[in-house]
Amino acid sequence: MSFSIETFLFVTIILILFYLIKKARAVILLAASLVFIYHLDVGSFIWILAVTAIVYGVGIAEDKLIERIEKKKDKSEVTLKILVVASVVLCAVLLFALKNIARWGERDDALIKILLPIGFSYYIFQAISYIVDVYRRKAKAEKNPINFALYMCYFPKFVSGPIERSDTFLVRVKELSGVRLFGNKRFSISFSTIIYGYFLKVVVADRLAFFTTRLLNDSARFGAAWLFLGMVMYSIQIYCDFAGYSAVAIGISNLFGIELTENFHAPYLSRNISEFWRKWHISLSRWLRDYIYIPLGGSRKGNARRFLNTAIVFIICGIWHGADASFLAWGLLHGFYVMAFGLYSEAKRKRATGKEPASIMNVAGMVFTFLIVSFAWIFFGAPNIGSGACYVGRMLSMTPGVDSFAAQAADIGASRRDMILPIYGVVVLALDLLIARKDKRIGRAMQGIPDVARYAVLYGMIMAILLLGIYGPGYNASSFMYVNF
C-alpha cells in the first residue's frame, strides 16, 4: 500500500462501506481487492483471475475425490495424487517461467511487465499450499467462490504478502459479520501498526536508499569504510522496507477484522542464524519448511540428508527471489550459515554444562548474526554477482579509496543533515527491543506501555513521516523492494 491521499481515501471508503453493510462484508472486500488490483496493473488482474478460477476448480475436484476415497471407490486415490502433483508442478513451472524467461531474454521492460505480474510469487505459493493442504486433509476445500477469491486476491497482502494459509484466513473471513471497529482496541492497535509501518518505509528505508543504491552499483569508487557502512545501511533498509510494508498490510487488514500472519518479529535481535530465519519473512520461512524441507525428510534421516535438504531449501529460496547468480549466492551463503550453526549446536549439546549463556554471549551472538546476515545481503542487493564480488573484495581488503572519507561522502551525496541517519537506526532498534521484550506484534506491544509514552512515540513517528518522509507524485506500490520478488 503506497503512502498517498489515494490510498487513504480508498481504505476510508472501503472501511465505511464495510461497517455500514454487515451482511455483504466479504463481497465488499473482494470488490475492493479487484478494483485495487485492476488499478495497480491490468496484467496482474487477468493473471489473478485465471489462477483463482483454476485453483478453485482444483480444490473442488480434490474434495470430490476425497469423498470417493472415503467411500472406498476404486482408483480415486491414484487420480487424486495425479491431480495434486500435476497442479503443483503447473504452479511451480508457471512461477519459474514467468519470473525468469523475460529476465533471461533481452530484458525487455514491457515483456517483463507482461510475464512478471505484481504479487505473482505470493499468491502462487498460497495456491500451492491450498492444493497440498486439501490433499493432506489439513484444510477443507472452500466451496464459496467469493470467500476463496478473497483468500487469493485480498488487497492488503496482494503486493508483497504475507503468504497466508487457507485454514486460518478463511475462518476469519467467515467471522466478518461479528467484527467491531472499536472492539478489543482494534482501531488503536491498527493505527499504531500502520504508523509504524509507514515510518519504517518512507522515513528510514527510502532515505537510506539514496546511499545504498549508489554504493552497491558503483562500489569501485568508494573505500572500505563507506562500503562497510553501506552494508549496514542496506541491511536496515531492506528490513525497514519489507517489514514496513508488512506492518501497513497487517494494520489495514486488522481494521477489517482479518489478522494476517506476522512476517517479522525483531529478526536482527536474533542470537543465531536459525533464530533469524524463524523471525525473518516468517510466512515464507514456514512455507519452505512445511512444503519443501519436511516433505524432503527434514532432519529425520541423518546429518547428510539434513544438510542436503537445507541446501535445496535455500537454493529454492534464492531462485524464488530471482534468476541472477547473485540471488543464488545469497541463498547458498544462508544455507552454509544454517548448516554450520547446526554442527556447532550439536557439538555444544554434547559438552553442555546446563548453564544458561551469559548476557554478553547473547549480545555477541546478536552482533555476529547481524554481521553475517548483512554480509549476505551484499549479494542480494548488488546488480549482479560480479558487482557483489567487487564490493566484498574492496570492503575486506580495507581499501581506503582514492579520495578522503569526507570527499567520498560528498561524492555519494551525504551532507551534514544526514548525520541524523544513525538516530533512525536507534529508533528501529528501540522498537524492535519493545517487540522482543513484550513478545507481541508492534501494535499490541505498544498497548503495553504507558499512554503518555505511546502517544509520544506515535506523535514522533507521525511528525517524522510528514517532515522527513519520501512520498508524493511517482511514489506507488511498486516502490516497495519486495514487489519485484
Coarse structural class: mainly alpha
Nearest-angstrom radius of gyration?
A: 23 Å
Envelope shape: globular
**Order of SSEs, N→C?**
HHHHHHHHHHHHHHHHHHHHH
Subcellular location: Cell membrane
GO molecular function: acyltransferase activity
Keywords: Acyltransferase, Cell membrane, Membrane, Transferase, Transmembrane, Transmembrane helix
Main location: membrane
In short:
This protein has 485 residues and is mainly alpha-helical. It is built from 21 helices and no strands.
Topology of helices and strands:
Blueprint: H1 5-20, H2 25-40, H3 42-70, H4 76-104, H5 109-115, H6 120-135, H7 145-153, H8 155-158, H9 166-173, H10 186-217, H11 224-255, H12 273-279, H13 282-293, H14 302-321, H15 325-350, H16 359-381, H17 385-396, H18 405-412, H19 421-438, H20 442-447, H21 451-468
Helix pairs in contact: 1-2, 2-3, 2-7, 3-4, 3-6, 3-7, 4-5, 4-6, 7-9, 10-11, 10-19, 10-21, 11-16, 11-17, 13-14, 14-15, 15-16, 16-17
Question: Can you characterise this structure?
Answer:
- By secondary structure, this protein is mostly helical.
- The chain folds into two domains: 5-179, no CATH class; 185-484, no CATH class.
- It is 72% helix and 0% strand.
- It is built from 21 helices and no strands.
- Helix 13 packs across helix 14.
- The chain is globular.
